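Narrative of activities, Objective 1.

The group set out to show that a structural description can be obtained from nothing but a protein's sequence at a throughput compatible with the screening campaign. Below is one input-output pair from the validation batch, recorded exactly as produced.
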Amino acid sequence: MNEKPRMNFSAALTLALIELTSWAEADKRDPARDFWRAWKNYELDVLQNLERRGLVRASHKTNSLQLTDAGKRCGEILLRHFQEAFERYQIDYSPENGGEYAD
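Output recorded for this entry:
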């Protein structure tokens, strides 16, 4: 079986953050199409893992990376899941609440 191992939490969180902070740029070769870039200020081994999976393209010549179409779709899904989890389990760290879960 040629199945890829599951993505670990740090790779999933990094891809969600890349999606969150990405911006669109016009493709110079195809002006009708945009591609998505983000700064690559994340752990190098995590970025290499995402690149091996075909989710990002990172050049050593730039400080930014490019989300592939698959990376963009996967990042959107992961970000949506993280947002849902955040809304469900919001923690109120206010002193009067003692850091308990918010209702």
